Amino acid sequence: MRILALEPYYGGSHRAVLDGLSESVDAEWTLLTLPARKWKWRMRGAAVTMASEARRLLDGGRAFDVVFASTFVNLAEFRGLGGAELAAVPAIVYFHENQLLYPSRHTADWDFQFPLTNITSALSAERCAFNTEWNMHGFLGEIPALLAQFPDHRPKDVVERIVAKSLVLHPPFDPAPFDAVLGGGGVEHASRGKVARIVWPHRWEHDKDPEAFFAAVVALAEEGLDFEVAVAGQVFPDRPTVFQDAARILGMRLVHCEQPVSVAAYAGLLASSDIAVSTAQNEFFGIAMMESSYAGCFPLAPDRLAYPELYPTEMLYGSHDELVARMRSLILDRPPAGRARGIAEAFTLEKLAPDYARLLARVAAGPQRVVAAGDPAI
Fold first, then answer.
1. Spatial contact of 220 and 327, defined as CB atoms under 8 Å apart
2. How many domains in the chain?
3. Residue 234: which CATH number?
């Protein structure tokens, strides 16, 4: 099987998933990628760049059985610009996220371009795979309201056409770096300090709401509780100012506040922590939280977004006050390592890569039977 993978935002969870699949699914992979920066420009222009490169490969004798594209490429534009031979290759679009649910800080008419790109990509694909039920149902549920804003010539049956070819396929993570850090002893023998450590393992951007996290840990620090804070994740030049204030406010409690220098360092940081916290306003799955759970942390996530689909009630919180109360309790009575390990084990490459292999093979084989949304048969 010859797979052409398109990833205009080759970084973070997008890169981790694609790297893991290309190493785990036995096939001939060709990866067309662009650096993970300026995502709006990637959505606007990646199809032009990637169609040109794909045509160059075809002209050089390369052939493809299936296209696997992320939502940062406009699949309809890619197929249109790539020519008849490329357009004939069946395609899967993978929804790590969708722009209909993405929280925008700047609403303007041009913002409609990004959700419409998701819609046209979905209509163009043979299959649409979403990383969670929340992602899929949220996307489908928001389409009618968006199309209702068309001044005229509103498209018909869009939701029905997309539902007929949609399914949920969770993103896998590679457990190897964490297994290497934990060794043969497992999470029960992870190296932890004398006091509880809280880790916030997310990219440093506004949609992950670092302000809410720091407000919660500062409140606990002001109570005089003894604990540590570690902040990790991908760092960007225009980071929120709250990160600069964190060291001054938390003092010696802040033991790490930078992007880990390597995957091994990241795995070690998670394995040395007790509690992993998400304060996200935007999360369609949350691989960092799943990796933290695998490394032995007790996850605390908001009872919104995709999290209730993945974690039991005891690992969810509602309000700011509830988050502070839950962290206080876990600081005073440190949870045993590995409470959520069993949850995370279901999302490793070993568990999920075969599902991706079956989907890719079925789509590559030709016309597919119509399935209902959520059909487990891949």
1. yes
2. 2
3. 3.40.50.2000
Other Cβ atoms within 10 Å of 89 Cβ, number: 21
pLDDT the model gives residue 23: 97
Whole-number CA gyration radius for the chain: 22
Q: What is the pLDDT of residue 370?
A: 37
Q: Give the length of the chain.
A: 378
Q: Does residue 171 contact residue 133 with C-beta atoms inside 8 Å?
A: no
Distances (CA, A) of 154 to 145, 147, 162, 186, 237: 11, 6, 16, 56, 41
SS3 69: strand
Locus of tokens 């995502």: 39
Residues 7, 140: one domain? yes
279 versus 248: the higher-pLDDT residue is 279
Instruction: Report yes or no on 241 lying in a domain.
Output: yes
Q: Are 225 and 193 in contact (CB under 8 A)?
A: no
Are both 122 and 249 inside the same structural domain? no
pTM confidence score: 0.91
Whether residue 302 is found in the same domain as residue 221: yes
Task: Please state, in angstroms and rounded to a whole number, the distance separating the CA atoms of residues 118 and 153.
Answer: 19
Cβ neighbours, 10 Å, residue 223: 10
CA distance linking residue 104 with residue 86, whole number of Å: 34
- Structural domain that includes position 93: 2-172+349-365
| Residue 208, φ and ψ in degrees, nearest 5 | -90, -5
pLDDT for 341: 95
φ, ψ (nearest 5 deg) of residue 149: -85, -10
Quick check: is 103 in a domain?
yes
d(CA 107, CA 121): 22
Same domain, residue pair 325 and 236:
yes
The rounded distance, in Å, linking the Cα atoms of 328 and 280 is 20
Would you say residue 27 lies in a domain?
yes
